[in-house]
Structure formats: structure tokens, C-alpha cells
């Protein structure tokens, strides 16, 4: 069981299992490191030693432009850690293949930062491959009403995961984009994964605020900024990453006059 501080044992290499989908031949090939594949397929880029942003894509009906979503891959001495899945099962399977072929590792465990499709659309694929998927109890409760799979509810408001010499901190700063949004901090690499609590450098709106707490969101962002002042790289859930200025940018968007008029339909994701 995942507790507030966890050191991972060495596990045997796992065989990748496709789940309830007929995988095309390209999905079993090895995607080159750092290259963008065809539209709606995975892209992986390095942001710090041993830390990669995985970006997947989803096209909403009637929209010609796919929406990107970011997560993290963390390479450790004992295997890879995954922050959030790709948008869907096919891209999540591709993500596992990238880790195996490019890092020569397997995913040790995965963390879901909140219960939205862009964070957990591939949970069932991970579970079919015997990869433990963890979340807070609130995220697991919310996920139970969805169709993507239910994570193990073992993450506390502050949880530390240790894998070899890698330290990963998970922190719940309070509700914001969603009632259950976590952030992840890698102190050695000074990388902060803000997830959907933090807006990308290219964002001009808050996106989907259907589950948002607009009063508490600024409080949560300020809490994160105060807790992690040494962050050199801040990775948002969507769009372009940058530095700590993304936290200030998010606060500016939260205080914009148009905030209350946004919905999931006119302000994705």
C-alpha cells in the first residue's frame, strides 16, 4: 500500500498488454525519442535530466484543432514513474512502448492528478499491464463514476515517493481547476508539474471550469508558489511549459473579467 513515504522495491520487467483494442502495426513500433508522431499520437520531450514531458492529443467533435495534454515520465534507477496517462488507451499504450524502447525501462507506478479524461483516459491500459495506479481518495471516488478505471486511493495530501535516489513529492494545495487537483515536485531536478491547476504560457483563458472552484483556485496557486519557490521548470496540464511565471500568468487569468463566462464548451480544456 502507498503511504506518506514509500521506497520502491525492484520489480521484474513487465510485458505490455493491449487492452480491449485492436492495435495497428505502427503502435508496436519504437517511436524515435523527442519526435512528433502523426496527429493524435504521442510526443515526448526532455525538460530535465531523467524527466520527460509526454504530450498526447484529443480532437473534440466539430473542432479541427486537436487539444494537447501533458504528463510526466520520470526515469529512475529502479524504473520509470508516470504522472498522468495519455488522453486515451491507444496513446497510453504508445507511451508504455516509448518507455520500454527509448528508456529501456518499464513503468513502476503511475499517479493520477485528478479525475478528468486527460489525466486518466488510459488507466485501464496501465492496470492491464499490472502497473499500480494511485490517486487521492477523492480522485478515486470521482473516477468510480467514470469509465476509465479506478485508481488505488492511497495518496495523502502530502506524499513522498522514493525510487532509488529519486524523490517525488505529491501535494494537494486545495481545490482549483478541479476539487482534487494534485501537483508533483521533483526537488533534485527542480521540476514542478502543476497539472491543470496551472495554465500554459500560451493560454488565454482558464479552459474548462465546470468542476472549478474559482474562489479557492487563486489560493491554491499562491500556496504552490510559496511552497516551491525554487522551481526552475513548471509544466502545466496543457500547453507550453516555462518557469514560475506560469503561476503568475494563471493568477492573471483567474482575475480576468471573462472568467465567469467560460465553460467546457467555449474554453477547453
Description:
This protein is α/β, with parallel strands linked by helices. The protein has one domain: Metallo-beta-lactamase, Chain A (4-Layer Sandwich), CATH 3.60.15.10. The protein is 20% helix and 25% strand. The strands form two sheets. The chain has a seven-stranded mixed beta sheet with strand order 2-3-4-5-6-7-8. The C terminus is likely disordered.
Short summary:
The chain is α/β, with parallel strands linked by helices and 269 residues long. It has a single domain, classed as 4-Layer Sandwich (Metallo-beta-lactamase, Chain A). The protein has helices spanning 89-103, 117-120, 123-128, 137-143, 217-227, 245-254, and strands spanning 5-7, 43-48, 51-58, 67-76, 79-83, 107-111, 132-135, 152-153, 158-163, 166-171, 183-186, 191-195, 233-236.
Question: Topology of this structure?
Answer:
Blueprint: E1 5-7, E2 43-48, E3 51-58, E4 67-76, E5 79-83, H1 89-103, E6 107-111, H2 117-120, H3 123-128, E7 132-135, H4 137-143, E8 152-153, E9 158-163, E10 166-171, E11 183-186, E12 191-195, H5 217-227, E13 233-236, H6 245-254
Parallel strand pairs: 1-9, 5-6, 6-7, 7-8, 12-13
Antiparallel strand pairs: 2-3, 3-4, 4-5, 9-10, 10-11, 11-12
Helix pairs in contact: 5-6
How many individual domains?
A: 1
Overall pLDDT level: 86
Q: What is the 3D shape?
A: globular
Helix/strand order, N-terminal first: EEEEEHEHHEHEEEEEHEH
Helix content: 10-25%
CA distance, first residue to last residue: 32 Å
Tell me the fraction of residues in β-strands, as a range.
25-35%
Report the uncertain regions.
7-39, 261-268
Number of helices: 6
Spatial extent as radius of gyration: 17 Å
CATH class: Alpha Beta
Biggest sheet features? 7 strands, mixed
Amino acid at each position: 500500500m502507498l503511504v506518506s513515504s514509500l521506497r520502491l522495491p525492484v520489480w521484474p520487467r513487465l510485458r505490455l498488454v493491449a487492452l480491449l483494442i485492436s492495435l495497428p502495426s505502427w503502435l508496436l513500433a519504437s517511436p524515435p525519442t523527442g519526435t512528433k508522431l502523426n496527429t493524435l499520437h504521442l510526443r515526448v520531450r526532455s525538460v530535465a535530466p531523467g524527466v520527460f514531458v509526454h504530450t498526447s492529443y484529443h480532437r473534440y467533435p466539430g473542432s479541427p484543432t486537436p487539444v494537447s495534454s501533458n504528463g510526466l515520465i520520470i526515469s529512475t534507477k529502479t524504473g520509470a514513474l508516470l504522472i498522468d496517462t495519455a488522453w486515451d488507451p491507444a496513446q497510453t499504450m504508445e507511451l508504455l512502448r516509448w518507455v520500454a524502447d527509448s528508456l529501456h525501462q518499464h513503468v513502476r507506478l503511475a499517479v493520477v492528478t485528478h479525475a478528468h479524461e486527460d489525466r486518466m483516459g488510459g488507466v485501464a491500459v496501465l492496470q492491464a499491464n499490472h502497473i499500480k495506479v494511485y490517486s487521492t481518495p477523492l480522485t478515486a471516488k470521482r473516477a468510480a463514476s467514470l469509465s476509465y478505471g479506478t485508481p488505488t486511493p492511497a495518496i495523502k495530501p502530502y506524499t513522498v515517493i522514493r525510487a532509488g535516489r529519486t524523490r517525488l513529492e505529491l501535494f494537494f494545495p486545495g481545490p482549483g481547476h478541479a476539487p482534487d487537483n494534485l501537483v508533483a515536485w521533483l526537488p533534485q531536478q527542480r521540476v514542478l508539474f502543476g497539472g491543470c491547476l496551472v495554465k500554459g504560457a500560451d493560454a488565454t483563458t482558464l479552459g474548462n471550469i465546470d468542476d472549478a472552484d474559482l474562489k479557492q483556485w487563486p489560493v491554491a496557486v499562491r500556496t504552490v508558489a510559496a511552497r516551491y519557490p525554487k522551481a526552475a521548470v513548471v509544466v502545466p496540464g496543457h500547453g507550453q511549459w516555462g518557469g514560475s511565471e506560469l503561476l503568475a500568468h494563471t493568477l492573471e487569468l483567474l482575475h480576468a473579467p471573462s472568467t465567469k463566462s467560460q465553460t467546457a464548451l467555449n474554453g477547453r480544456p
